[in-house]
């Protein structure tokens, strides 16, 4: 196993002047996150339109290297590669009910003959349609199919360069099993393959429990690259190792207060004219937001329901949906709220609630609370949970926050940010049941296929690698996905002896397994060095007249800035050996991690 694909190793030395590397000094005006700024400045990508990018030669090389690693590990796992159409009949999406749930993200086209299709954002429906045509017996199971293909989603706000686009490259895989044991085996196999992929790509990652979202299913994990610019929040317990996306994170037991003082003042109505928001009410009544509780109303499968959470907390709609056993969930309208509760939006409270109500443990544990008065411009103060309203349905329905107790041991949890680069799901029969994808079991009875799905954003691997490793000078690429691992910089390109020596270094490094580019531009040394640092080549070899005269060739690693010199005669062999040593060290780390997972188990 190599840490980069042999398919992409150059057999001949590449010259800078023979390709397109449009580096920029200025930061693009529309770029916000480091990966967007640096990938544009370093000449990897150019924007065509909102959410659509051209990959220039260097960008495509890095993308293809990541893709090759993904393909190698998917094949190693036993998955079988296919290529499915990007054009998908709308009828398939209506079979599963996702035509509505995917909503406006689905890009739709009208073809001749009044046919309606979608540009595929994912392929659960298409692969299930394929499986119901091709799989008919338990003898054909288990099987996992995968593809690497362009996907399309009508993101309302494409941003952050290639991190969130309307068109992107994705590896999506789908497993088909006869029972839960086979599904678990397929899931674990993909989980381990993902670990190997990201280890080999050289990107740091955290595995977190995740919410399945519109894909569906009952179990999933995300692979996240920690980054301060990440859009996802990761809730972690550093002691137990528990980690989850904020959408999924559970909260440990909340300490309940002592029984209410029997002499505590009774709940009292207070006039709060024109005060609707938590902040407005808290300031008006002279309390803190965490001393208030808010009642939020939802339409769960078209039934009006409510939750009570502390005023400074945010509802977790996924938890709410699961708690009510609902397929669909959305905030109720003002008209729905008034009809169901008799009270106006903005002033709802739990006292004498007329709708099914769940109480979050943090709200239930409040000794006193300010709540809505179920009348316009009215709130209650001195409300005691359990005294003034029942605590019969106490359920975790909010987002976990920093300091909340861990569900594994109770230690305070912390929040970090991350970029999602991979996601694995146990789908069960969500799609096979909806699309009647069945097989005959050992007894000749029809059973629904049991499915899993597994996705990697290939473009995101590049962006996440940059977000995880850069400095003020530019990108610091992991060696496996750098466009070229070595840049050889001759400083006097008009001198045949200098160029001959540059070729010798390049040939020795290529023979050792590296891919090499020679910067043969007739430019100042500083100009070349700045471009080399901006692009982020892992290893730089500088050949100048003064150095050759002094029998000294300068060599520098981009990561860590370690530099050393080698003599002219033995220099090519020594540098090739140094490169190979670092290559092999990374390979050894990957193998060690894999062996450690095998001993400890997946979780």
Q: Remind me, CATH topology of the largest domain?
A: BirA Bifunctional Protein, domain 2
Q: Which superfamily, in CATH terms, is the homologous superfamily of the largest domain?
A: Bira Bifunctional Protein, Domain 2
The first-to-last residue Cα distance is 25 Å
Return the domain count: 3
Q: Which percent bin holds the helix content?
A: 25-40%
Choose one word for the global shape.
globular
Q: Give the integer mean of the pLDDT values.
A: 93
Q: CATH class of the largest domain, please?
A: Alpha Beta
DSSP strand tally: 31
* Low-pLDDT segments: none
Q: What's the CATH architecture of the largest domain?
A: 2-Layer Sandwich
User: Rg from C-alpha positions?
Assistant: 29 Å
For the report, how would you describe the main beta sheet?
A: 9 strands, mixed
Report on this structure.
- Helix 2 crosses helix 12 (458-468), helix 6 packs antiparallel against helix 16 and helix 13 packs parallel to helix 16.
- The strands form 8 sheets. Strands 4, 8, 9, 10, 11, 12, 13, 21 and 24 form a 9-stranded mixed sheet that branches.
- The protein starts with 13 loop residues before the first strand and ends with a helix.
- A hairpin with a 5-residue loop joins strand 19 (369-372) and strand 20 (378-383).
- The longest helix is centred in the last third of the chain and has 30 residues, at 571-600.
- The radius of gyration is 29 Å and the shape is globular.
- The chain has 603 residues and is of the alpha+beta class.
- It folds into 3 domains: 23-203 and 431-468, 2-Layer Sandwich (BirA Bifunctional Protein, domain 2); 268-383, YbaK protein; 484-587, Anticodon-binding domain (Rossmann fold), CATH 3.40.50.800.
- The chain is built from 16 helices and 31 strands.
């Amino acid at each position: 196993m190599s840490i980069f694909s042999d398919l992409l190793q150059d057999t001949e030395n590449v010259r800078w002047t023979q390709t397109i590397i449009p580096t920029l000094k200025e930061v693009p005006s529309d770029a916000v996150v480091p990966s967007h700024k640096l990938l544009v400045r370093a000449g990897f990508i150019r924007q065509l339109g909102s959410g659509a990018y051209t990959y220039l030669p260097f960008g495509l090389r890095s993308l293809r290297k990541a893709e090759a690693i993904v393909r190698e590990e998917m094949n190693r796992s036993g998955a079988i590669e296919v290529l499915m159409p990007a054009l998908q009949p709308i009828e398939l999406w209506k079979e599963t009910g996702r035509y509505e749930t995917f909503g406006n993200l689905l890009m739709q086209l009208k073809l001749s003959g009044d046919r309606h299709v979608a540009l595929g954002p994912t392929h659960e429906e298409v692969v299930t349609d394929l499986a119901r045509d091709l799989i008919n017996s338990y003898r054909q199971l288990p099987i996992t199919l995968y593809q690497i293909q362009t996907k399309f989603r009508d993101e309302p706000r494409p941003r952050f360069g290639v991190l969130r686009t309307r068109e992107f490259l994705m590896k999506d895989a789908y497993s088909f099993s006869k029972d839960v044991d086979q599904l678990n085996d397929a899931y674990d196999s993909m989980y381990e393959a993902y670990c190997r992929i990201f280890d080999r790509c050289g990107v740091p990652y955290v595995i977190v429990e995740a919410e399945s979202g519109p894909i569906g299913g009952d179990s999933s994990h995300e692979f996240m690259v920690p980054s301060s610019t990440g859009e996802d929040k990761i809730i972690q317990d550093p002691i137990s190792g528990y980690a989850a996306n904020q959408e999924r994170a559970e909260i440990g037991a909340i300490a309940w207060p002592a029984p209410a003082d029997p002499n505590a003042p009774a709940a009292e109505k207070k006039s709060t004219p024109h005060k609707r928001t938590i902040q407005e009410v808290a300031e008006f009544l002279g309390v803190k937001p965490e001393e208030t509780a808010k009642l939020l109303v939802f339409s769960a499968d078209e039934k009006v329901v409510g939750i009570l959470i502390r005023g400074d907390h945010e509802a977790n709609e996924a938890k709410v949906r699961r708690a009510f056993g609902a397929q669909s969930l959305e905030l109720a309208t003002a008209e729905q709220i008034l009809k169901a509760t008799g009270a106006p939006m903005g002033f709802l409270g739990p006292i004498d609630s007329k709708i099914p109500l769940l109480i979050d443990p943090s709200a239930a544990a409040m000794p006193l609370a300010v709540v809505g008065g179920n009348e316009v411009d009215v709130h209650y103060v001195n409300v005691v949970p359990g005294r003034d309203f029942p605590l019969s349905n106490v359920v975790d329905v909010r987002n976990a926050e920093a300091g909340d107790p861990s569900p594994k041991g109770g230690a305070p949890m912390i929040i970090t940010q991350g970029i999602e680069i991979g996601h694995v799901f146990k789908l069960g029969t969500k799609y096979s049941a909806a699309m009647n994808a069945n097989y005959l079991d050992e007894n000749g009875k029809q059973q629904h296929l049991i499915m899993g799905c597994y996705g990697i954003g290939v473009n995101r691997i590049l962006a996440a690698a940059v977000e995880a490793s850069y400095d003020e000078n530019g990108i610091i690429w992991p060696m496996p996905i750098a466009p070229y691992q070595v840049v050889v910089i001759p400083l006097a390109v008009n001198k045949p002896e200098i160029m001959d020596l540059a070729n010798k270094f390049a040939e020795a490094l290529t023979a050792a397994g590296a891919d090499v580019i020679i910067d043969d531009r007739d430019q100042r040394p500083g100009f070349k060095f700045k471009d080399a640092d901006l692009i982020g080549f892992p290893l730089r070899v500088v050949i100048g007249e003064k150095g050759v005269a002094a029998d000294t060739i300068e060599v520098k690693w981009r990561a860590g800035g370690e530099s050393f010199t080698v003599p002219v005669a033995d220099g090519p062999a020594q540098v090739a050996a140094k490169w190979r040593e670092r290559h092999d060290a990374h390979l050894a780390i990957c193998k060690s991690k894999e062996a450690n997972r095998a001993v400890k188990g997946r979780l």
